[in-house]
Amino acid sequence: MICNSKYLYKVELVTSSDILEFTRIATKCPYEVTLVNGKHRLSAKSFVGVALAKVSWDEIYVEADVDCYFDFEKFIK
After folding, report:
1. Are strands 6-11 and 60-64 parallel, antiparallel or unpaired?
2. Tens of pLDDT along 32-54?
3. CB 66 within 8 A of CB 56
4. 77 near 12, Cβ under 8 Å?
5. Is residue 44 classed exposed, middle or buried when 0-12, 13-18 and 19+ CB atoms within 10 A define those classes?
6. Segment (H or E) for 44
7. CA 42 to CA 35: how far, in whole Å?
8. Which end of the chain is more exposed for a tag (fewer CB within 10 A), N or C?
């Protein structure tokens, strides 16, 4: 989904291994990757941020200026 010239995809992180893998992928991206839920925004490159989003938010979206679908397709729902 494209929103305000940014790419936004709903993701599902089930296990702690998912959080670790998601963070590793985000860290390798040469562009900014953010997790969003309403007004809340966290860096997708931070393990603590991703873990916090997993336990605190009912829905998690990954947002980037570049189409990140193929980087995160395993987690996109």
Report:
1. antiparallel
2. 999 999 999 999 999 999 999 99
3. no
4. yes
5. buried
6. none
7. 5
8. C
From residue 68, how far is each of 4, 35, 55, 56 by CA, in Å?
Answer: 15, 12, 23, 23
Q: What's the full length of the chain, in residues? A: 77
Instruction: Return the SS3 of 22.
Output: helix
What's the token pair of residue 21?
Answer: 């893998």
Helix H or strand E encompassing 16 = helix 16-28
Q: How close are the terminal C-alpha atoms of the chain, in Å?
A: 12
* CA pair distance 55, 57, nearest whole angstrom: 6
Whether the pTM exceeds 0.85: the reply is yes
Tokens, residue 20: 């670790």
Q: Report pLDDT for 15.
A: 95
